[in-house]
Write a structure and sequence with these properties.
heterodimer, A: 166 residues, six-stranded antiparallel sheet, 4 helices, 30% helix, elongated, B: 451 residues, alpha/beta, eight-stranded mixed sheet
Amino acid sequence: MNVANLSPLQHQETEFEKRRGISRVEIRYGFAQVHITNLEGEIQAARLRVLKAVNEAGISVDFLKLTPTGLSFLVTNNCADGVAMAIQPVATDSSIRPERAIVLVHAVNIRDEEGLIGHIVREVIETGTTIDHIGDMHDRLLMIVSAKDAPRLEKLLTEKLLAGQE
Amino acid sequence: MRIKVMKFGGTSVATPEARMQSAMRVISAKDQGFRPVVVVSAIGRKGAPYATDTLINLLNEIDPNVDPDPRELDLLVACGEILSAVVFTHTLKTLGHSAMAFRGGQAGIRTDGVYGNARIVSINPVALLKSIGGGHIPVVCGFQGVFVDGPGMPGGELTTLGRGGSDTTGAALGAALKAEAVEIFTDVDGVKTADPDAVRNAPTLRTVTYDEVAEIAHLGAKVVHPRAAEIAMMYGIPLWVKNTFSDDEGTQIVPKSEFPGRRVTGVTHTGKLVYLQFDLSGAASEQERVMLETRIYETMARYDVNLFMLDMSPSSTGFAVPRDQYPIVENVLDGLVIPVGGNERRVYLFQVGRNASREVETQAALLGSLGEVRRVPAELTEGCTMVSLVGHEYMQQPGVFYNVMHALAEAQIQVLQTSDSDYSLSVLVTESESLRAVRLLHERFGLSEVR
């Protein structure tokens, strides 16, 4: 290629890094949330007994969160009955909410964008949606909500968060 | 034209001997028929005379209480890479090879207008291609670009790319120049299964996927920045991490399709964090609990606090914040009073830490005469670190959480919170236990045998 005669305007520029801020809102369906409270005895050991029971039942868990008196996690809807049986001997105070959805708000380097996570969470709470649980990764915020509420939340977030950036 | 982008980090250009070794690698690539394009970081690491932090200190020494203007700060710190590029160019010339130094803007790197943390929006590589066509080796300043605010604006504003900026420059130039490979040269043999400070004999991975390396980089591995991995992944540029000072073959970073199968990739640790867990069980109603949650997150957003490892339950919510931002959190939340409003004569009073500060006690005494005061205590754990297990097609296996928690419980390491993704599982532990936690997980998941 003879580049000597190329002017900058003749050369195709290339776009690079993902745009800063929120890029999209996504929903994943098909989960049940297991919430266990008031575990007895030393809390770390009690949580471990629950996880061991679930493991022995061959069930994979996601979104594990530790709470002051217990823990919560997600399983796929079709594992809800299996997990209920597995944890029965080790957790007296538990609930399983079927038909949950994960709402994912994608934003590159979300943890490094100052105040962004707080801003999103505030917006979600203000929509009146009950958040069962919340978590974060380097490029997204994840919220567990009722599958019934998820489409409305997706619409509201898209309007409030994505439109606000344009 | 077979272009190879070769990026040299601070230690690879720190001394005349190091620069000579780096230059010989460039010449060797040229001898193999490549047209090398060099990207350099500033000379040396923290404390070195021309390193970025040394330059920043020039301003801090004037008055540490006055924050430098971000625009001027970018102009200052960019000098480190300019100096490095010129010195490296001259080194190549002394070895008989024609070379040309370029600032980021001269190399056609355009960014958005965020000083100190700009993102690359486009690259016009014409000047570099002309230089290559003229028989020169271009030496480009890493970590910097230029923001042009609309057509017709003279010059443009120099901006720096923030953390990992030079790696990002290397990968982006590789994409723009359609390079055959991008090589990131550093002072370790490649991507390792753990930080050698934690696991002395951590093996070097010969192949990792873009996703794996982006994840381990986000979670604390310092070997290549995730922004660089993401760009390389997006454009399918072969990316290598190599040691300037050894003949080790290094680590090749490949697409997922080239690495079928499942494995645990490594254990990382990152972050000087402070963990706060708010007890919301004292809220008089569901509506008031939601009001408290809203207020907490609204306050964090208003004061630009970064949040990690969030959790939320019917009776509590919590998160970790960077240690350097904790004074802001304490300042705005400790003693914060939230009245319920309406006909209720009830207020909520936030208390950060087990023992109430004098401010909180004073507030409580003053407010007590006006109505009911309900405390919202936040349990505080200072000095935390996030330790993460990273895997490829692995995290969805039953028992991964259990094995991690079991290994740590056996060693009596308390886990404060967890988070997980498709590629990783992270636990928050106290900083004093973090290296032990890394070693334990490294051993438990058999990472000493990984290749």
